[in-house]
Write a structure and sequence with these properties.
The chain is an alpha/beta fold. It is 44% helix and 14% strand. It is built from eight helices and seven strands. The protein has a seven-stranded parallel β-sheet with strand order 3-2-1-4-5-6-7, sandwiched between helices. Helix 1 links the parallel strand 1 and strand 2. The mean pLDDT is 96.
Length: 263
């Protein structure tokens, strides 16, 4: 399916690995120009090299720390300078530390808020004039299924990510009609983090093989497996395209049906 975004410019944050990388890959496959971002420049270079042949567009890496306001401003400015504009913004960020409420201190809360919420606030603030220009664009927030259904020992993600969805819904009204704003709420996907956790469990003797651990991870899902990151990435690309032109202000759960929330 041609999503009709060839030649557009997309900025995808925290995209040197994981679901951000899958989203960047899906956009690159549609021949968009894509800016990928991360803090580890070596990993970022490897990602650019891996994505550069995915489509006819150009893939550029721009390092930056999403908790640093100056880095965020430079990231958007650099994208616009590189490609002459910005059509699609996709925000992603690494997850905050796990742990129960009574073992989470003030510093943990402030860092999680800065990483998950203020990074989005600053990115959208910098990007909005460019997204609104030349016929308008899109914004997609990658958050987590935890905003629909609290997950044990993830008090920071359960609590703080809800602010991102509240902001996304507000933006869907304030930035419209030029900019459509949506969110994707992923469940478990086979990212490098999940692979590392399974491999560590194999080393501890909890599973006989990686395949066994992966199967166990997906055993409670109605589809019998966890997600392929590209399934999330393809959803992001769809929401960034004219094919989803009447979807605005939505929070799309991508979890294979594993959640129990009705809404």
């Amino acid at each position: 399916m041609d999503l009709d975004i060839a030649g557009n410019t997309a900025l995808v944050t925290a995209s040197s690995r994981g679901l951000g990388r899958a989203s960047a890959r899906a956009l690159a496959r549609e021949d968009a120009n894509v800016v990928v971002n991360g803090r580890d420049e070596e990993q970022l270079d490897a990602t650019v090299a891996g994505l550069d042949e995915e489509g006819a567009g150009e893939v550029v890496g721009m390092p930056g720390d999403l908790t640093d306001a100056d880095d965020v401003a430079a990231l958007v400015e650099g994208t616009v300078e590189e490609f002459g504009g910005l059509d699609h913004l996709v925000t992603s960020a690494g997850g905050p530390p796990s742990g129960p409420f009574l073992e989470t201190d003030d510093e943990d809360w402030y860092h999680a808020y800065d990483l998950l919420v203020m990074s989005v606030v600053r990115l959208v603030r910098e990007a909005a004039p460019h997204l609104r220009a030349d016929g308008g664009g899109t914004y997609v927030a990658i958050t987590s299924r935890s905003v629909k259904e609290a997950i044990g020992s993830l008090v920071l993600s359960n609590s703080v990510r809800m602010g991102v969805v509240g902001l996304e819904k507000t933006l869907s009204k304030e930035l419209a009609p030029e900019v459509r704003s949506n969110a994707v709420l992923p469940g478990a996907h086979e990212t490098s983090r999940i692979r590392d956790l399974i491999e560590q469990a194999v080393e501890r003797g909890e599973y006989d093989s990686y395949e066994e651990g992966l199967a166990e991870r997906g055993s409670g899902n109605p589809l019998g497996r966890i997600g392929d990151p590209m399934e999330l990435g393809n959803t992001v690309a769809f929401l960034s395209s004219p094919a989803s032109g009447y979807i605005n202000g939505a929070s799309v759960v991508v979890d294979g049906g594993s959640g129990s929330s009705n809404l």
